[in-house]
Specification:
By secondary structure, the chain is mainly α. It has four helices and no strands. The radius of gyration is 9 Å and the shape is globular.
Length: 51
Amino acid sequence: MSIWRVILSVLFPPLAVIDRGCGSILIVLILTLAGWIPGVIAALIILNNKR
């Protein structure tokens, strides 16, 4: 996980997980709309997982 991905996941979480698939983007988008912090946490968890 690069520093740019971490910064992007803090600023706009759905954009940070765009290469992980449609399901990840949808989950992070819903969590971001529900609250910014859950979206950031979900994006960081998804980015931290190995493929």
